[in-house]
Each structure stands twice: as structure tokens, then as C-alpha cells.
Amino acid sequence: QAPGPEYEASDVTYQVSDDDAEFALDIATAYPPEAGIESWRRSIHCKRDSSITISDAYKLSSTPSEITCSILTPCQVDQTEAGPIQLTARNFHSDRTSGTGVITYDAAVQTASLEPISVDDHRLNSVWGDVLHRVVLRSEHPSATGSLTYTIPP
Hints:
By secondary structure, the protein is mainly beta. It has one helix at 122-128; strands spanning 10-16, 20-26, 37-47, 51-60, 66-73, 76-78, 85-88, 91-93, 96-97, 101-103, 110-118, 131-140, 145-152. Strands 1-2-3-4-13 form a 5-stranded antiparallel sheet, with no helix packed on it. The longest helix is centred in the C-terminal third of the chain and has 7 residues, at 122-128.
């Protein structure tokens, strides 16, 4: 993603009810033209007390070699085999503990890897602790048009 107001998302919508909330936008304009993204519609649907679903529908100008999606979490992450990724509680300050959950994705289409990210900035460290975990979901040889979905149930 590129910095600056010329790279803001477009077609932003938000809907809310007692049971659901959904935020959606086209993030294609957040990337420079050389990225070759014609459209990338992302929706984040929160079903209260149930789950969060992130859905991406994309159209690219050519077939990419890979697509990656990164999810940052303060949780402890257990990703020992393909399939659901376990997020367990992690104490990162005397008064702060992360939540728990599971990230589900299509293991037939994507592979998952984990990267620890050191948090050296003391302002961020006081909120997030000394490490975050980046879950990288990688699709190799995807088509130029497609969709990806990630669900995080409680």
C-alpha cells in the first residue's frame, strides 16, 4: 500500500444492526498502478457474539505468482499444521491479556506461516507488549479474478 490521500480506499460502506455490523470498501486505489489491481473489494462482517468474516473479491490486470494476506495479533499463535490457526490468550502486561479465537481459511488454496514482530516503540509496547505475531496466508499461482475468505469464530 502506498501512503498519501491519493491512495485512499473507495466505495466505502458501513451497515449496522443489533445482530451484525459490516464495513466494506474497495482497496484497489490504496495500491499504486503498477500493482495491477483493477478492483479489490474487502468486507469485514461482524456477527455479534458469533464471528468475524473477512471476504476479499479481487480482479487483477494479470495473473500473479502469489497473493498474501497478513493478520497481526497479540495472541499466542499455534500453527503446527495446515488448517485452523489457534489463537490463545497471552499476557503482555500485568493488566492486559489478549483474547482467544481461531482463524479459519481454505487450506487447499492457501498456506499459512507465522512471523514474530518485535515491538520496540515504547508507546506501542505499552499497549501491545513486546511482540506481535503476523499470520501470513499465501495463495500461490492464483487466478487473476477470485475471492478469499477468512473467518474468526470465538
